[in-house]
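Protein Entry — a single chain follows
Fields — amino acid sequence, structure tokens
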Amino acid sequence: MNQFTEAMRQLVAGVVVVTVRDERDDIGTTVTTFTSLSADPPMVLLSLASSGYLCEVLLRQDRWAASLLSGGQAVMASRFATPGRPSARLLLAGTPHHRGPRTEAFIIGGGVAALEAETIRVIPGGDHTLFLAQVLDVDYVDPSLPPLARLRGRYRPVA
């Protein structure tokens, strides 16, 4: 690991599962580079590795969902972060979830919040691609739960 990567591991990041319904399957992955970009209009920024399959799909499918995980969902984060993972449908078996009404993407229940978004601009940046998206809907917010964070390569609930 190089010094830059080690330096960035010192930042606490929220943990989000991003999902999209493709014409063939449901795809999702765990991300930690997801943030609010604007309150008016409501916008978010998502960063994905350009070489990843989800990035490829989001370049042709503009609407997607983001489930902001709670402290008790580290297993879910790990499932969606595993290389070679199966369809999102299989990863969500036995877990409360539903399809977002605006995107048809899976939304995971039990998180701290979930939203649906539509990409309005794509920006290449080094080995990643940035997706600037307008928020279409906030599906739910549950401030009673602690959020899940990633720090120094490990998932941790925020007290």
Notes: The mean pLDDT is 94.
